[in-house]
Amino acid sequence: MPRRPTVAGVPANLATILRDIGALVLMQATLMLLTAVVALVFREFYVALAFLIACGITATAGGAARRAFEDAPNPVMKHGMVIAAGGWFATAIFGSIPFFLSAHLTPVSVMNSYVPAGANYEPIRIGGETAFSSLAYYGEPLHALFESMSGWTGSGLTMAVHEPSLPRAIQWWRSLIQWVGGVGVIVLTTAILARPGSGSYALYRAETREERIHPSIIHTVQTVWRIFLLYTILAVVVLFGAIWWSEPRLSLFETFWQALNHAMTGLSTGGFSVTDNSIESYDSTLVEGVLLPIMTLGAIAFPIHYLVLHDRDFDALFSDLQTRWLLTLFIMGSLALSVQNIIALPVASEAFTETGWLGVRNVGMSALAGDAARDSTFQFISALTCTGFQSSDIGSWSAGGKLIISGAMVLGGAAGSTVGGIKIIRGYMISKGIQWEFSRVFLPVSAVVNTQINGRKLDRNQMYEEFSEAAIVSMLWIILLITGSVLLVNVTPEFGYADALFEVASAQGNVGLSTGIVGPTMSPLGEGMLVLNMWVGRLEIIPVLVFIRSALFGLNP
């Protein structure tokens, strides 16, 4: 039997994977260094030290892997799948180090100085001291990993009970990793593109399964970044105006800070917030209205943005199948959820307080119905775009409302965007495939059957191939969802199955909405499972299965 090639004593396949994962980890070290500078600007010296130490650890590990295996072969598709899965997990692990070190290096007295004046937060016991900043929760390694995985996968579920009590640099880090992680293709390819001809398009396909905007992957990454940066700047400007109008008591800097962070996490459909109770804190129709188009932009496929901005092809926006269905589902889902929540109002009447069923100050059923429609619209669009901004206490909703939101989180937005979920195109392919199978019953065996999907003409074999891919991924997605929800409801008996299903759908769909299960007091088993759900959901299952198979049996046939 011939000997398999090796690089530095390591099998060539493994060397290729380790080198390119090392490049991704090395890229994260640069982001940590930038955040250390942010910490110094805000005079958060303990946090700055944590980021500098984390940067050194991350740069050493990533640089060592890249240098040791620099002569490894270029990646091909089988490597791309494993690098995509391993790279996401590695970035989440190293990304958790700043959270963990910041919690342990910062004295409790300094932690408490981050708590906003007048805030009444629950105490957190650390040894013999009492902390009030949510930074203390990151002292648990699993909590730190959960926050990092949630950030890098654009999920938005958090262990920070009170985000305003976090240091500014930690708030920035959470938003930054969602902003970068929201465009996963860039995270997976930026460092690798430093080596021209590396075959990194294999990674691009493993992550997005979409056509390139340009023939060159380098141009693709540059174009996506330009679009993303342009939209972010515009989002900051409009959000600044909306927040300033809604919250005039805030300083100009605080208004800018909130606009910046919410623009970054809104456009990346990540959903981390820097305010208590997410967007509900504003209780502003204007802020919610401004966020709707920002979230929508993140859920539209990036090739469509390119056609509109570069080619001035505005017809592409409405001729694209996924965009049309995204907008159609916005209307249908918002109406269905509004009706469901308005019907549920009398049922909830016994629980009315002066703040109303939805947590909005109002009195009277007509006002509550209006608030129900407003919150239903925002929450459905937040769920379908997989953003996860929360404008209402979803935990108080009826099971029917939670299930509608869960369905939106499972489906998600357009493939080729920053969203999670199964994706609209797969849902459409499954429905089209079922229709196609029924229609074949009435046709002769010799009939030539073609179908049109989004401007493409598919023959029988192509239809089978695309229908099979959509059905397999969706089936695996649903199996994992049901398995996870059954496990979660058993470790959180104080919640019902609708809540458990909602929480797993949110994690696996990389959304971030919560009914109250996720938090620092949840079961470690449930928390660890949701970490895996977020990871698997971001990679759409197949690369994770390839990763597991490769870990057990290697990459060779």
UniProtKB/TrEMBL annotation:
Transmembrane region(s)? 21-42, 48-69, 81-101, 176-204, 224-245, 290-309, 325-348, 403-425, 470-489, 535-555
Matching Pfam families, A to Z?
TrkH
Annotated membrane topology is: Multi-pass membrane protein
Protein species of origin: Haladaptatus pallidirubidus
GO MF term set: monoatomic cation transmembrane transporter activity
Localization, per the record, is: Cell membrane
The organism's taxonomic lineage, starting at the top: Archaea, Methanobacteriati, Methanobacteriota, Stenosarchaea group, Halobacteria
Q: Which residues, if any, are the signal sequence?
A: none
Q: Is the Aminoacyl-tRNA synthetase keyword given for this protein?
A: no
What family classification does the UniProt entry report for this protein? Belongs to the TrkH potassium transport family.
Q: Quick one: a GO biological-process term for this protein?
A: metal ion transport
Keyword list (alphabetical) reads: Cell membrane, Ion transport, Membrane, Transmembrane, Transmembrane helix, Transport
Please give an example of a GO cellular component term from this record.
Answer: plasma membrane
What this protein is called in its record is Potassium transporter TrkG
